[in-house]
Amino acid sequence: MQPENLLLHHTRHRHLSLGCPILDAALGGGIPSNSITELVSESGCGKTQLSLQLLFTAQLPHGLNGSSLYLYSEFPFPYRRFAQLLHSFRSSHPILFSNYRDPCDHIFTRDCHTAHHLLDVLLQLESRLKHPKETRLDIKLIVIDSIAALFRSDFENNGADLKKRSALFFKISAVLKMYAKRFGIAVVVTNQVVDLVDDSEGVSGVRVGNLEGLWTSGRRVCPALGLSWANCVNSRLFLSRREVIEGVENGLQGDDYGGFVNRRQRRELHVVFAPHLPYSSCEYVIRKEGVFGVDR
Asked: For residue 22, how far is the Cα from the chain centroid?
């Protein structure tokens, strides 16, 4: 291949469906394989529920058609929510599971207690990924929920520890990117947020991605783990929520208004940065059956 032809060479990646055509359309087809996608939000926005939902959609024949590995650091494992999504997935795909095929047979879970433990688990995974037929581990999705919890207590806020932490970031992300590229795996990592109290743009005065600021529940926030970790992921999706007031009775508003109003939580998914997508956003709702986009 000649250097001048690089821009003409287009590599097509398979996409992992989110289980909703509206959300898939907002992300250009879903979660891309061969890269790391980060889900960032405060607690209660549904990033874990969406991660669990991906464990099932990864098995769809028109998607990745493979197994999933779920590495979790938030305890306990959400068995009750997992069971609800399992029932919903079976009900919505009766033909796929009509021959006594159990979706749980294609989902593997492992707890991780520290960042070093996570790295050890990932390194041990390579030999199994090389021989999927022998090990019956045809993994096409790796989920880490969540990355921030692994670094929360292991490192102090000083120069030496921050340097060690950044080095571990790059080791973990290098292994994940290598697996993603080599084996066509979609990697999804969840991250938490911290409150941002200064008036500077972005993190440490540096704007990261399409948005000048991230807002949720009336607070300005930024993803945990800082700029070093931001350089370790290929795409960042931000899940936010805010209270909206609808249907003010008789159109009256003001301090003296005593009627009834409808308050609800509006949740939105934002593309903060992605090499294949412009900025976009999509409203979504969380139901017993799963996470679904709202067509507006």
From this structure: 17
Would you say residue 230 has pLDDT above 50? yes
Instruction: Report pLDDT for 181.
Output: 96
Contact 82, 107 (CB under 8 A): no
Residue 91's DSSP bridge partners are none
For 214-236, b/e burial (b = at least 16 CB within 10 A) is bebeeeebbbbbbebbbebbbbb
Residue 2 pLDDT > 60:
no
* Cα–Cα dist 108/31, whole Å: 19
CA distances from 293 to 22, 27, 50, 154, 156 (A): 5, 11, 12, 37, 40
Per the CB < 8 A criterion, the answer to whether 239 and 40 are in contact is: yes
Rounded to the nearest 10 degrees, the angle between the axes of helix 47-57 and helix 79-92 is 40
